[in-house]
Automatic annotation (TrEMBL), chains A, B:
The keyword Magnesium does not apply. It comes from the Bacteria. Homodimer. The monomeric form is inactive while the homodimer is active. Transmembrane segments: none annotated. Residues 257-441 form the Peptidase M28 domain. Residues 1-25 form the signal peptide. It is found in: Endoplasmic reticulum; Golgi apparatus; Lysosome; Secreted. Keywords: Carboxypeptidase, Endoplasmic reticulum, Glycoprotein, Golgi apparatus, Hydrolase, Lysosome, Metal-binding, Metalloprotease, Protease, Secreted, Signal, Zinc, Zymogen. The keyword Zinc applies. This is Carboxypeptidase Q. InterPro entries: CPQ, Peptidase_M28.
Amino acid sequence: MQKIRSGTVAALLLGSILSPFPAAAAPSSSETIREAALQDIVAWDFVEGLTTEVGARPAGTPQEARARDWTVAKLKSLGFANVRAEPYKMPVWLRGRDEARVVAPFPQRLVLAALGNSASTSEKGIEAELAYFPTLAALEAAPDGSLKGKIAFVSHAMSATQDGSSYGYFGATRRQGPSIASKKGAVAILIRSIGTDHHRQAHSGIQMWADGAKPIPAAALSIPDADQLTRIIARGHPVRLQVTLTSRLLKDQPSGNVIAEIPGNDPAAGLVMAACHLDSWDQGTGAIDDASGCGIIAAAAVHAAKAGPLRRTIRILMAGAEEVGGDGGRAYFTAHGAELHALVMESDFGADRVWRVDYKLPAGHEALAARLSAALAPLGIARSHVAAGGGSDIEPLVKAGIPVIDLQQDGTRYFDIHHTPDDTLDKVDRVQLQQNVSAWAVALFETANAQESLGIK
Amino acid sequence: MQKIRSGTVAALLLGSILSPFPAAAAPSSSETIREAALQDIVAWDFVEGLTTEVGARPAGTPQEARARDWTVAKLKSLGFANVRAEPYKMPVWLRGRDEARVVAPFPQRLVLAALGNSASTSEKGIEAELAYFPTLAALEAAPDGSLKGKIAFVSHAMSATQDGSSYGYFGATRRQGPSIASKKGAVAILIRSIGTDHHRQAHSGIQMWADGAKPIPAAALSIPDADQLTRIIARGHPVRLQVTLTSRLLKDQPSGNVIAEIPGNDPAAGLVMAACHLDSWDQGTGAIDDASGCGIIAAAAVHAAKAGPLRRTIRILMAGAEEVGGDGGRAYFTAHGAELHALVMESDFGADRVWRVDYKLPAGHEALAARLSAALAPLGIARSHVAAGGGSDIEPLVKAGIPVIDLQQDGTRYFDIHHTPDDTLDKVDRVQLQQNVSAWAVALFETANAQESLGIK
């Protein structure tokens, strides 16, 4: 039995060095912040710690509660002010056994994962004939009642995109497919995973039952399994499947947000808020989704705080329950929506480098956008003319008209890993993570200190 | 419900075109064969068919029996002569549930797969403290009895090698680790998967209990899980694990080899035999291990047969039960070892390109080696001065002194996939598969027609 070196030493030292943040005598320049943050160790330490010491963090579970405790302690040790968890309650869907096999014509096992809110089969599962649809449109075109007693299988062809836009388009199969299949009489639905990899792991994800759609068992096949099933179907024989997807529903389970601040010196100028989410899907350890986002914003706030006094308070929102519908973001808005939010931003698209910056600012803020874009350019980040849209956790604030800036991350490999067991620490590239921290530190510093009014009337 | 195009048309046409092989009026040159085989469709059709219509083929199971039936029919349709299955019986180990979780200090699930011949836990599993060893040498150095009541965990650091040699070295952890841990009193052993990937899939594989070692539960963690456990151990707290590995042992189950031939016209010149194995591990569909090898040798024999009359008979051995100890290869040697084998070769290292050719030929065969090497060179294959060693299925013949040639495949990514659920059709590159067929067709043609005596006294 041998001891191996501890990875926690850096974290302990960091806490003592950075707390309370030793502010520079005069504000640093964005260039100084940018270069310092490229050497960041706070984000990696956060991601390594949360994924190792907590692991998977499904919304509304004891694991998510452990993540809140861990995060409150970590943010306090980093020197943040006003660190607290803000609880709320929510319904919870819990995965059980996910099993499937081809009964005929070629008996073999398939790898799949139930989708969030899937109905549960019995422990013995169900057996039925398969009805194949190459696209969601083909499923939509099936006559009402034509799927009675059958298992629908919807394939499609998602491919990787740098901006992640293919997820919006192809993700409809996961979001809407189960309700459509149910309304047409299917006893269950399988979809090809919404993903871009070629590994034998299924991509989970939430889906909500449409009004009038009776919940049925719903799952995603791994991409190699979906391809295999498509080849089997191509032989032209009727295909029978046995599917066992057990799950449970619990009411009123505890979840919560974690909030922390770096106080500014002009409360009337409003808050700059940076968001991420603490919960994860259950199969992986949520390293890229979204421990990385939380590590990035925490580290960036630390670097901004070190750089000098801030005009605006930087608030960190590490939301609960993003994956299952955004309960945390809504709870935040209910509690804090009336406070003065000058600007909101979110990091929830992995750990790969920021390649683009998008803005949605009020009229008269062109100089700020130009200033920030110039400060980000040395990081390889290009200004776009696409309007920023934010993320799930800040969606209620964005809808309420708060200005938003998006530091868009490269999504080319994000959907190789997203919502699979493979979402683990080894998928995080330390250098790309540091580039994110650097971009965020600059953005938080520039916007927190901006003399422009932003979202404050 | 829509039909998609059938992939079997080519196979059906092929059978009628190629059977019986329309021999050229005069023997073709190696160049003609090499170029024709680079357009091969037989190997892909074989691999696609076997992995789709049978899937996983664990030794001694009904799936392996279906694979024999499928293969006999396929080889007959390709025009081979003397196609038959040759049965034998063997003991079988069958996987049950593979589950593990960290109980303390950081509760979370781990992904693992039992190793072949692992003892079974009860349905409730076992819980014990972990004893960590970074290397097999560290486990070997532990005092006798020091592991009493503990679960041993052995990590190590396998990295990819083009020639696959790191498997021999690091694979010792899987082959010997369980027996060593058992003899020192461990209640179970976990190893870091013998693999080079970063996916959440465990690499299975066989291990044999040494004399005097009591079977204990033995499993491989996926590499991200082994890394995670190592990080958890690094925190310095005692680590407790719960491990459930259920399995069954069956006696005297049916297995078998499939044999087929392309008859030559000089029986006294002996056989040239090409081998692969039909069985696979249970987690994947055995596309690279070893449907590809079987597809390559079958396709290459077809191309050699088309090229012209052959002096020597080419025999194809598609062995059973390679993965679990080589029962098929031994059964073949018992039945056929006394027949005249001029040369043996095996394809069992995936589907990636051949990069090197190794020889072990009797004295006086330098001209043949030079001729064959020159014919292979345009495929990017370099002659080595390493002695050829063959593979498991021909090991008894090689040990008996039969000459052997190895067409070494690139193993750089082989152990990313080997013995995992990821061993599926999408991992086979069609162009690299064709390069294999081309190299093998040339090698079979040159050796079957060689005027040299090879292994025939």
